[in-house]
């Protein structure tokens, strides 16, 4: 599989928040957004990644030079000396490919779609282009896509409020040699000048994929990605979450002693609702030294946690268990970063495996805990 990542856009909508790097290099959880895209590609049999670059391309090129050895595929660049539009960028990048079959991704969009399935779907359809479609509810930022019973895309509708429908997820499988770029100028739009005419000719098919989707091209969604970067990671079925600083806002120099003092971290309820469908198990692992110091009672802590889990459940999320260490001493085996709480989880849930477990935290202690448990870690800031 050869993959094109479109990373040459000017990022004008995001420039008020991130102005010194290309959109695909916007920092999310201490990593450039591109890192998450490339990590996701590790799941598939990708041989080559072609980066279509232009604006501030030196930033991308330098990062790839420093990190290319971490990936099982080779990299090459298609450089837009002047903006070519989405279509011109794809055509230039496609000319760098070894074969005709290509997958195209947007460098500012995460869509957890099965790329192998999309490629095979296009082959079986006999059509030159297949697009991954995302079901969405209550939206007006995206145009709606209509799909015929035979999975042929029948129409692209203009942006307007829609209670439920399909949107273009920005991932395409295409046959470069099928003539889709014939007769087009140097600069053109892939959406307007390729997709719409192919749709009118019945030569575009759509595959519905209901994975996590986020477009960081606007400040609000960029902030949402930064609040839960762990949703951009794949390959895990067990999720561990620190509490203070992850579920609720930290109280510097103090503890959350009552429900009134509990302040939800922005976006966490929405993130946990999404996580409920992606992870088989979700646990909180938390140090609560305030109980050991006598600042609050164990009963008060359990009352907060009972209320918290009910609120999460009411929002569509879930917590499958809460593992707490109230010890004051750092030498206690259950106090993070020591691994005792994870050992309790492994004892209670023998099917949990470290290789498929992800820890989310906001501190060096959480990172060291993950390292001690030999599990993946994601930092939120």
Short description:
The mean pLDDT is 93. The protein has helices spanning 33-41, 57-67, 85-94, 115-125, 190-200, 219-227, 268-276, 289-292, 298-314, 340-348, 364-373, and strands at residues 2-7, 27-28, 31-32, 48-53, 74-79, 101-106, 109-111, 129-139, 143-147, 153-159, 162-175, 204-208, 213-215, 238-241, 281-287, 321-325, 357-361, 376-379. With 381 residues, it is of the alpha/beta class.
Structural commentary:
The chain has about 375 residues and is an alpha/beta fold. The chain has two domains: about 1-215, Spore Coat Polysaccharide Biosynthesis Protein SpsA, Chain A, CATH 3.90.550.10; about 230-380, Rossmann fold (3-Layer(aba) Sandwich). Helix content is about 30%, strand content about 25%. It contains eleven helices and 18 strands. The radius of gyration is 23 Å and the shape is elongated.
- Main beta sheet strand tally, sense and closure: 7 strands, mixed
| CATH architectural name of the largest domain | Alpha-Beta Complex
Order of strands in the sheet with the most strands?
Answer: 5-4-1-6-11-8-12
Count, helices? 11
Helix content: 25-40%
Number of strands: 18
Domain module count: 2
Q: Multimeric state of these chains?
A: single chain
- Mean pLDDT across every amino acid position: 93
What CATH calls the topology of the largest domain is: Spore Coat Polysaccharide Biosynthesis Protein SpsA, Chain A
Any idea what the radius of gyration is?
23 Å
CATH homologous superfamily label of the largest domain: Spore Coat Polysaccharide Biosynthesis Protein SpsA, Chain A
Identify low-pLDDT runs.
none
Q: Could you tell me how far the N terminus lies from the C terminus, measured between alpha carbons in angstroms? A: 35 Å
Shape: elongated
> SSE order in H/E notation?
EEEHEHEHEEHEEEEHEEHEHEHHEHEHE
Which class best fits the helix and strand makeup? alpha/beta
Q: What's the CATH class of the largest domain, please?
A: Alpha Beta
Tell me the β content: 25-35%
């Amino acid at each position: 599989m050869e993959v094109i990542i479109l990373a040459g856009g000017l990022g004008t909508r995001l420039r008020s928040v991130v102005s010194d790097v290309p959109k695909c290099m916007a920092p999310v959880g201490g990593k450039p957004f591109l890192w998450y895209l490339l990590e996701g590609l590790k799941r598939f049999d990708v041989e080559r990644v072609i980066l279509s670059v232009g604006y501030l391309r030196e930033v991308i090129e330098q990062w790839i030079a420093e990190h290319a050895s971490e990936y099982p595929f080779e990299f090459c660049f298609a450089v837009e000396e002047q903006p070519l539009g989405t279509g011109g960028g794809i055509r230039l990048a496609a000319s760098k490919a070894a074969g005709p079959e290509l997958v195209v991704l947007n460098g500012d969009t995460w869509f957890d779609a099965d790329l192998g399935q999309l490629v095979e779907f296009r082959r079986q359809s006999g059509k030159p282009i297949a697009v991954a479609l995302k079901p969405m509810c209550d939206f007006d930022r995206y145009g709606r896509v209509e799909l015929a019973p035979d999975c042929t895309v029948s129409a692209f509708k203009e942006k307007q409020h829609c209670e439920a429908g399909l949107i273009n997820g920005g991932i395409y499988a295409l046959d470069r040699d099928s003539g889709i770029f014939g007769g087009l100028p140097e600069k053109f739009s892939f959406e307007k000048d390729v997709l719409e005419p192919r749709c009118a000719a019945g030569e575009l098919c759509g595959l519905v994929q209901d994975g996590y989707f986020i477009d960081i091209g606007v400040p609000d969604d960029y902030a949402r990605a930064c609040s839960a970067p762990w949703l951009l990671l794949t390959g895990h079925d067990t999720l561990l979450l620190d509490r203070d600083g992850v579920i609720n806002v930290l109280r510097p120099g103090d503890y959350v002693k009552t429900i009134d003092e509990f302040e939800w971290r922005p976006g966490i309820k929405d993130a946990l609702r999404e996580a409920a469908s992606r992870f088989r198990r979700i646990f909180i692992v938390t140090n609560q030294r305030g109980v050991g110091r006598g600042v609050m009672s164990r009963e008060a802590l359990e009352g907060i946690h009972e209320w918290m889990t009910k609120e999460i459940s009411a929002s569509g999320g879930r917590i499958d268990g809460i593992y707490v260490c109230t010890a004051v001493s750092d030498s206690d085996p259950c106090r993070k970063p020591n691994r005792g709480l994870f050992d309790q989880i492994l004892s209670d849930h023998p099917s949990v495996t470290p290789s498929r477990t992800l820890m989310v935290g906001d501190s060096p202690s959480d990172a060291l805990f993950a390292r001690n448990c030999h599990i993946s870690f994601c930092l939120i800031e």
